Amino acid sequence: MEKKVFVTHELPGEVIHQLSGLCDVNVWLGPGLLPASGLREELSDCDGVVCLLTDRIDRELVEALPGLRFVSSMSVGVDHIDVQALTARGIPLGHTPGVLVETTADTVFALLLAAARRVSEADRFVRQGEWRRENRWSPDFFTGKDVGGATLGLVGLGEIGQAVARRAQAFGMRVIAWNRTPKAVPGVRLQSLESVLAESDFLSVHLALAPETQGLLNTSRIAAMKPGAVLINTARGGIVDEQALAEALSSGRLYAAGIDVFAEEPVPVDNPLLSLPNVVLTPHIGSATARTRARMADIAAANAIAALRGEPMPHCANPEVYAR
Ligand code: GLV
């Protein structure tokens, strides 16, 4: 019998078109994102799934799918998936590391510069006609914070953190970092988390979301950040306590933030960060260039094709399943 694969969204790239030569492919065409209940129904007779970071594949779902043989996610992060539940069943999980590194580092810098120089705030001011209405321009008009000469602290020094460090060096920033395991990166001084928090004018988060990193930037760590600092988060919302961050921003203890990821996505409109003028907000678009998204989709498709052929996935998040 022909194998069945479900794809939870239409994907860019070329490789995905090869899937239909290998199996029976069913693609969710919307409208909107596939609801969680729909995923369970669609996957009930499937051998594999190609999914997005918006699809939650938890233990309950994995256990309800005895025929599931592989999962391939078009994302580098796999916190939306119960990896242990898959590994326990010997099910490989594909993901897409590497290709989004430079694109995501660009997003970090877009948010960092926008937050430092109040770009979104100024854009709203012009667009809403305030500039004309107030007939104002003065030496202190929309003054921001200098990036050149400032200290950038990286919380996590993986590939994306290192790509951000390279950009920061070109902007004349001093770069310090905390990483769970020691790592030598030219031009980056490794320090304790506490001293990175205390010394950074700009702090950027580059960790995967896992039980050890959930809520890492909690109320006390946010309170330990340098007064007037800017926080950038393009990693995962769950790493930062949003309420504590909003309070630090509205009290003026922190200068600004650039936030691409949220504890709940799409972000609820009553999230306190949405009402603050000094927060630059984007909807989880760290890797969003057409070229990078096509490359990610090609890797996700290649992972699925390998699984269908009974070969190891080229980019597997739980390679221990192959050691059995
Ligand atoms: C993006 O957040 C990803 O994990 O690919």
Provide a compact summary of the structure:
With 324 residues, the chain is an alpha/beta fold.
Question: What can you see in these coordinates?
Answer:
- The protein is α/β, with parallel strands linked by helices and 324 residues long.
- It folds into two domains: 4-98 and 290-323, NAD(P)-binding Rossmann-like Domain (Rossmann fold, 3-Layer(aba) Sandwich), CATH 3.40.50; 101-281, Rossmann fold (3-Layer(aba) Sandwich), CATH 3.40.50.
- The chain has helices at residues 36-43, 59-63, 83-88, 101-116, 119-127, 130-134, 159-170, 193-199, 219-223, 242-250, 290-308, and strands at 4-7, 24-27, 48-51, 70-73, 93-94, 151-155, 174-178, 188-190, 202-205, 230-233, 256-259, 279-281.
- Strands 8-7-6-9-10-11-12 form a seven-stranded parallel sheet, sandwiched between helices.
- Helix 7 (159-170) links the parallel strand 6 and strand 7.
- The two termini are 26 Å apart.
- Bound molecules: glyoxylic acid.
- The site of glyoxylic acid has 7 residues, from loops.
- Glyoxylic acid binds at residues 53, 75-77, 100, 286-287.
How do the strands and helices of this protein lay out in sequence?
Blueprint lengths: L3 E4 L16 E4 L8 H8 L4 E4 L7 H5 L6 E4 L9 H6 L4 E2 L6 H16 L2 H9 L2 H5 L16 E5 L3 H12 L3 E5 L9 E3 L2 H7 L2 E4 L13 H5 L6 E4 L8 H9 L5 E4 L19 E3 L8 H19 L16
Parallel strand pairs: 1-2, 1-3, 3-4, 4-5, 6-7, 6-9, 7-8, 9-10, 10-11, 11-12
The chain binds glyoxylic acid.
The site of glyoxylic acid has 7 residues, from loops.
Write a concise keyword list for the protein shown above.
324 residues, alpha/beta, Rossmann fold, 5-stranded parallel β-sheet, 11 helices, globular, binds glyoxylic acid
